[in-house]
Structure formats: structure tokens, C-alpha cells
Amino acid sequence: MIRTIVWGENIHEHLNETVGRIYPDGMHTTIAEALRRDEAIAASTATLQEPEHGLPAHRLDETDVLIWWGHRDHGAVSDEVVEQIARRVYEGMGLIVLHSGHFCKPFKRLMGTPCALRWREAGERERIWTVNPGHPIASGIPDNFVLENEEMYGEFFSVPEPLETVFISWFAGGEVFRSGLTWRRGAGNIFYFRPGHETYPTFHDATVQKVIRNAVHWACNPQPAPIQCHEAPNVPVDSAPEPISERGPKLHQAGEAGYR
Amino acid sequence: MIRTIVWGENIHEHLNETVGRIYPDGMHTTIAEALRRDEAIAASTATLQEPEHGLPAHRLDETDVLIWWGHRDHGAVSDEVVEQIARRVYEGMGLIVLHSGHFCKPFKRLMGTPCALRWREAGERERIWTVNPGHPIASGIPDNFVLENEEMYGEFFSVPEPLETVFISWFAGGEVFRSGLTWRRGAGNIFYFRPGHETYPTFHDATVQKVIRNAVHWACNPQPAPIQCHEAPNVPVDSAPEPISERGPKLHQAGEAGYR
Amino acid sequence: MIRTIVWGENIHEHLNETVGRIYPDGMHTTIAEALRRDEAIAASTATLQEPEHGLPAHRLDETDVLIWWGHRDHGAVSDEVVEQIARRVYEGMGLIVLHSGHFCKPFKRLMGTPCALRWREAGERERIWTVNPGHPIASGIPDNFVLENEEMYGEFFSVPEPLETVFISWFAGGEVFRSGLTWRRGAGNIFYFRPGHETYPTFHDATVQKVIRNAVHWACNPQPAPIQCHEAPNVPVDSAPEPISERGPKLHQAGEAGYR
Amino acid sequence: MIRTIVWGENIHEHLNETVGRIYPDGMHTTIAEALRRDEAIAASTATLQEPEHGLPAHRLDETDVLIWWGHRDHGAVSDEVVEQIARRVYEGMGLIVLHSGHFCKPFKRLMGTPCALRWREAGERERIWTVNPGHPIASGIPDNFVLENEEMYGEFFSVPEPLETVFISWFAGGEVFRSGLTWRRGAGNIFYFRPGHETYPTFHDATVQKVIRNAVHWACNPQPAPIQCHEAPNVPVDSAPEPISERGPKLHQAGEAGYR
Q: Domain tally for chain B?
């Protein structure tokens, strides 16, 4: 079983009547139910309002893939939780960031870039094209599919050049957007997926749900143990893989830790 | 002229007799002099001890390429200056990070990863191989060259997969390291170059100097104006590139800024 | 001066009245004239009908960037010339492939993939978006520009994942296409640029011309000498960079060439 | 079950006494037996001497991953079989190329580059470092491992910049080599793995065997159906995803195939 957490900001569902009607139990619940249609996925949820936003370190340590949707209050996410998420991604936890999550703290932290874009909320038609049909995330997805009402996101999307581009969106209003992008950071697989404005029923769409299930499978890294990627260990001369003798001047004493 | 700043931490030159003897005017001065041997490069310096570490925003705004060497006191660099550097990189300022700078704040901020590695200070032989001989940074560099005494850095180097790998180091003690790596972040070109431990005369080496000069040319982005990459502008319906009509429910009022 | 050859198939200009009227001296001539507006570029032309298609090895050896437009008779290009082009690209000659050139022999040879796509000739609107505004090829290009009448090319474009994606096209008929893609092969920079159907005046468009001029500058690799990338030289034991002794059984005799 | 074929050239096992003693049933048999230790892998073999080299199209159509070892007689592989292999890779068959296979026809065909390197047969020590410990191919592989006697391969290895670099080799004689590299071509995953000179018992090494088993799992693409990547279908105006009207001059008649 792939252990997932669907994290929802869980604000607009309560403040906005339209959102509340489309997602009466919260967007995170709708997404988690969509994941459970795959017997290999165990889906739980967490929200901003819980202690540590429902993401204490011990829970993250037992999570294979974290899915993130946030929009109104990115700033309310604590920096400590962000660092724990980043640590777990380096160790191999997958991260799937949805729609307005492009501006969430964990994504900006891991990308190292502004993650900005242009946008328009006009309920216009979005047509999503598969530009990497052999990628596991595109498995079973048609060459293109339509979301009749979506918010527009347009380029330039200021993220690092991805490992691979999987989807590109066409908008009725004339823009395009790289809608499905992958990166690896440490042992962690990261996928950004564009659709999902809260005033439209996007997460009830069967194709959108299938993309997210595919992404969970792709993002899950079954490596048996966390990799060593945080520390900068000293390798003493007498432990060098090949025998060498120490030469020349030194800055550090034997066994000393490096500067950070 | 390519306007560069060579930033030096400027500590060990004063604390450690060996370092002070090799770099009596500071490592930053030696590197800047090496850059000035290229008539197309204008090299200035800045150090940790100056106000704003010598990097006020207005100076960064008139800088094409920033070169960074730091080691002992990465934590002393102010977060405000780090954010200004990151902003300028997105806008097109090149960044060249040398040796122990792998752990400096601006590099970790832009990579989004731990940037850790293993190390050994034994004055051992480093042999640097060119694995991308057509890359501009390798122009005029032989297929391999030797630094007789260097600190060892070994993999795993926890950075994002680079755009291109230019150099790989062989160490007498048995390790290897990806010693020349490139990334683009926004409009900014970033190059990490491994050699340069302060107790050895690495920055007096002619080949090392040539690599850094090549990297300055490569990193300089002559784009006439800063790109728009920080903000997420709204595109009103009546400004859409293709005519569309507004449909469906809305979250935002016309002209409202998005959430961050 | 960057020495360029604009290669034109030079067929439809003579067979099709529309094409002949738009490009009375051939498309290659129009493109070459556009390049000459940049004082740093020296532009010559070559066509399919010339001996060796105007591309004898000695001429390629003195060429920095080759620009290719072909459509009707890709198969007429000789395999010997294709191999000479590939050799020069590995050695550092830039290659810019335009529009229907996606199916030309040199491009398929260098990509190693089918380079297929879907298409429609309906004179529809193409809107080209810059998705990598800091890339040198996008220098001075607006965030998007329109070609009012173009042939549609749609994904999946079966090429290798590029080094960077620079432009993406939006079509009125609903498709998207990765319209500006870069690769490096050996020391050679390769750029594919989508627009340029022969029945429309695309190569008279000022923005299209600027993109091609930018691409010539980007593709030009000023490396002083061809890199060694074709041969697999034996390194005899007594020439090993580090001293070693020969051990164990051998297949090859000393000085023998490897198998190919 | 992942359906694999281990292809062996099967020449040196019969000509060279040393090779015959290490691999009495052929290298392909040793590798296939190593794969069968994983219950999820079904391993068969094929050799150069069989009709169509044991790789008729119908057999390739039922193969998930092809593993290739060849050295002495690359030229004897028929171009028709090479094209069938390339076709299947685009459609999703994985390809793992071992050691001297760097010069085999299918690999050069798919890379589009010379795939050259430097080499030395001196039985020297090779130390292979994991530089991407989170990659599935590195699962369970230590941070480095040693092959006491191997042929040296040195950079520059003239292949396209990989999707990811997984392993880098250190050689006692002073060279380095990117020993584990990945690419995707169409829907096909390709992995090059360096070790495996026939006069040494490399394919009896447990860690080498584990890397190859990991690579089989990684390379297998469980996409349900071959992707469309060979043809360039016309999309008639009345089948455009969004309604458009035909405009302007045309080159092609309705329903006509494009030029190739």
C-alpha cells in the first residue's frame, strides 16, 4: 500500500458558498476518495487547522506521498513544518502539488524559485494535452482532455527547467501553460499538476482523478531506507577508499566537523 | 564589459598563517586579478565584513556575474542580502559558486536542496576531467588537468540534477565528484565549480583561472531587461489575448490581487 | 562574423504559385537576407539541386551554423551529406531546423527518434508564447506574438526531451506544440523552431526573423578546435594518467584498435 | 512478469579461452540466470547467430525489456533488426546496454551520436560511485562498490546529456566515466551500464547483477498500449478540437498525406 496524505487548506469550502456546495466535505476529502478507488493506495487527510497542520514529523516519516492543495493562506503554514516536509522529500517522500499550491511554502522552498505565473478567473475552457505519452503519469490518459470551466494559468511559470514535461494546457483565452512537470530532489519525486480551481468541480473529473492516482504511483519511491543527503561527513585519511598519506597544510583538526 | 563582483568571506586569510601566506590580499583579490586578465571582464570585490556584505541592492542591480567563496561563517550572511541575490539571479545575474560555497546561503536558497557532500582534508591529488568538451566553460581546457594538493569532496552531492555536467573529479583517495555543474534559475545562469580549498594555492592555478573566466562569459546573460518572474499578474477577461466571455462562479473580484 | 548557410529545398517556390509569389527568390534567400540585418552574421545559401546539395565537406568545415528548411523531398538528400552534417554538429557546428524540417534526414539522424507530430493546413491563428524568457534565443521577444495564418503542428512531437523549452504555440483549432526546443549533441547546439509553412509569409515576419537571428548567436560555438568525439582511442598502460601495472587476462594486443 | 531478452553476441566465449572459462554457457546465459533470481522477471536469451539474431518483430512485440551485450562484430547486426528494435523502444520497450554495447548499432541509432570513449585493458581496479542514491536503479546499491579487475573506459563519452546520471566510475589509472546513464526515447526507457569486459567475471558479481535487475524494473514501462509516435497524421479542419474555418492558400489537398 502506498501511504498518502491529502493536505487541504480547508478555508474556502467554509467561506464561499459555491466551493462549499461542490466540495461539502472539503476538497481534500474528495481527492482522498478518488485515490481510494485504487486498491494500492491508502489515503488519509490533513488540514491547515490541525496541530502542526496535521503533519507532525512522525506522521511524515510514515508517508510515501504527500498531496498539497492550498490557496488563501499560504503564509499560515509554519516554517518548521515546511522544513520537515523538505527533509522527507529529500529522503524519498513524493510530493504532488495541485493548482494554486504553486505558491505554497513547501513548493517554493524545494524549487528555489518564485513559482509565479499569470492568471484569470473566467471559467474558460482548458484543453490539456499529453506531450509525453510514454510517461507513467500519462498512462491511460487520452492525447487531450477538456475541463469546460477552469481558471487560466499562463506562462511564464518561473520554476526550474523540469526533468520532464508531461502535460501542456491550451486556454480559450489564448494562453498556454506547462501543466504537468516533474522534478527529483534528493530521493523525492515531485509533480506539479495545474488544474483544480476551487469554484469548479475539477476534482470530480474522472481524468483528473486518474492523473493524480498515476502521479501517486510514479512519485512513490520504494527505496528501503532514507538516503544520506543532509550531512557532510568527514572521511578520515585512514578510511579513504584507496590508501593515501596526508600531505600539506590543514585547516581542520582530525575528526572535526565541517563548517555550515 | 562584464561587470563582476568577487565575494570573499575574508576570514581564514587573517586567522590561518598558511592561508594568509598563499593569499596575502585575500582570496577574492587573487580571483579578481585573474578575471582582469580578460579585457572583457571588469572585476570588483566585496567581503563579509562590509555593510550589507558589500552587496547592497543597487550594486547587485549593476552586476552581471557574482562569484562566491565562503566557508567558515556561512551563517553570518544576512537573509535580506540572500533574498536580494536570489532576486537578481532570477532577473539574469549569473552566479558562480566556488568550493566550500556549496553550503552558502544563496546557493542552498536557489538549489532548494541540502547541497551536502563528503570531504577529507589530506592534500591529495585531484584530477579534473572534462566530460562536456563542447561546453563554453570547457573552452581551451584540456581533457584533464591535475591539482596536486586539494581537499577531497565526494558524492553524493545533494543538488538538483544539473542542466549539464561539465567536469568530474578523480581523487587519489578513491572518490569521484561532479565538479562542474550548470543550472538556470529564472534568467540567471548558475555554475558550481569544486576546487579551491584555502590552504592550497588553487586559485593561482592557470587552468582553474581559465575555467572561472570562461564561466563568467557563460554566466553573463545580456538580456536587455529584467524578466517578469516574481509577480503573478491577473489578466482581466477583457485583456485576454483571444476574446472570451466570463462564465461560472468566481472567487476573486475584478482587479483583485491573487493570494500568496 | 558568424558564418552561416541557409539551406533551402527550393522546390515549392517553383511549383506552387502562392509560394513563388511570397518568396520569389526562394525561402532561403529571404531568410539569409533577414540574417544579414545583423552585422555579426555572414549568411550564404545552399539548395538541394546543387552538387552535394551545396554542402561539400570543406564548406561545412568553414560553417558555424547551418539553417535547414525542407519539406517535399526529404528523401532526395544524400546519406553521405547527412553524415557530414552530423559529423560537423558533433564538432561544434550549430544546426537550426525550421518547420517541416522536423522530418529532414539530418534532424532525425541527430535526434534518433521519429520526430513525428500531427498537422492541419487551415491558415489558422498561431500564438507563440515565451516560456523561458531568460534564454538567449528569447532575447527581445515579447511574452507572446501572433502569426495570423499558419499550419498547425500538434503534440505528441516525438523528439528527445530537450535541454530547454523556449517557446510553446497555441493554435486557434485547439492544439498546443513545443515550438522552440534546444539540444546539445557533442559540441553542437541544435534548435528546432516550428513556424514557417511555405504558403504563408512567415519568414517575412520581424519577430520570426529576430528569433532566428538570436538562435544563430546562441547556436554558434566559438570553441577554438573540433573536439575529439568520433574515435575511441586506446590509452596504453604506460600512458595511464596514474601509474598502474597491467594485470589479468587480455583480449586485445598492445596498440590494437578496438572493435566498432 | 517482466518479459526480458538478454541478447549476447556469443563470439568471444568460443574464440577466447579465458572468456569461455568464465562464461562457459555464454555471457547472455549468466546474465539471464541473474535476472531469474528475481521472481518478477522472466528472462530469455537471443544471440547474433540465430535467424534475425533471435529478435524477429513478433518476439520484440512481446518483450518488455531488451538487454544487449556485443563487442567484436557490431557490424554483423542487420539494419532491419536495428530498426525493429528502435520502433519497439519508441513504443515502450526498455533497453539496457552493457559495456562494449556502447558502440552497438541500436544504441548509436537511438542516441544519434558517436557514443565514443577512451579505453585501456589492464585489469585495473574500478570503483563505482552512486551519485543518485534515490534513483530506483540504485536501490539497495552501496554508496560505492569495487570491481577489482576491469577494462577502463574514460571520458569524453560522446552521448547526449542524460535524463539522469546514476553512477560514476573511478579507475586506478586516473580516469573517470559516467557509468550509469538514463534516457527516455518515445515511451522507451534506456539505461547504459558500463562494466562487463568479457575477460573478467564481472557478470558474476552480486552488485552488478542487482543493478541490472533494478534496471529491468525501472526500464519496464507498463503502459497498456503502444503510443502513437511514428506517424504524422493529418487532422482535417472539421475534426479540429476547437471549431475553426479554413483560410488562406493551401499546399495539400484534403486527406492528403504529408511529405516524409
A: 1
Give pLDDT, residue B253. 73
Q: Tell me: pLDDT of C226 over 90.
A: no
Omega before C156 within 30 of 0, i.e. cis: yes
Which of A144, A174, A178 lies nearest to residue C127, judging by beta carbons? A174
Shortest alpha-carbon distance between residue D155 and chain B (Å): 6
D170–B132 C-beta distance less than 8 A: no
We report the CATH number of the domain holding residue D188 as 3.40.50.880
DSSP letter assigned to residue C19: H
The pLDDT tens digits for B12-36 are 999 999 999 999 999 999 999 999 9
Closest by CA to B187, choosing from C166, C192, A107, is C166
Q: Which residues contact B31 (CB under 8 A, 6 or more apart)?
A: B6, B8, B43, B67, B69, B98, B203, B209, B212
The neighbouring-strand residues paired with D127 are: D146, D170
D 160-189 residues with CB < 8 A to C: 160-161, 163, 172-175, 183-186
Using DSSP bridges, classify how beta strands B164-171 and B118-130 pair: parallel, antiparallel or unpaired: antiparallel
User: Partners of B168 in the beta sheet?
Assistant: B129, B178
Chain B partners within 8 Å of D171 (Cβ): 170
Q: Which of D164, D149, D140, D141 is nearest to D195 (CA)?
A: D149
| CA proximity to A243, closest of D123, D126, B176, B122 | B122
Q: Among residues B217, B224, B227, which one has the least CA distance to residue B2?
A: B217
User: Taking all residues of chain C, what is their mean pLDDT, rounded to a whole number?
Assistant: 95
Does D149 contact C247 at a Cβ distance shorter than 8 Å? yes
Looking at the domain assignment, is residue B133 inside a domain? yes
Do the domain assignments include residue D255?
no
Q: What percent of chain D has pLDDT over 70?
A: 98
Do A99 and A176 touch, CB atoms closer than 8 A?
Answer: no
Chain B residues near residue D176 by CB distance under 8 angstroms:
127, 129, 131, 168-170, 176
Domain assignment present for residue A152? The answer is no
User: Which residue range forms the structural domain that includes residue A33?
Assistant: 2-114+176-219
Q: What is the ipTM of this complex?
A: 0.94
pTM of the model: 0.96
Determine, yes or no, domain membership for A108. Answer: yes
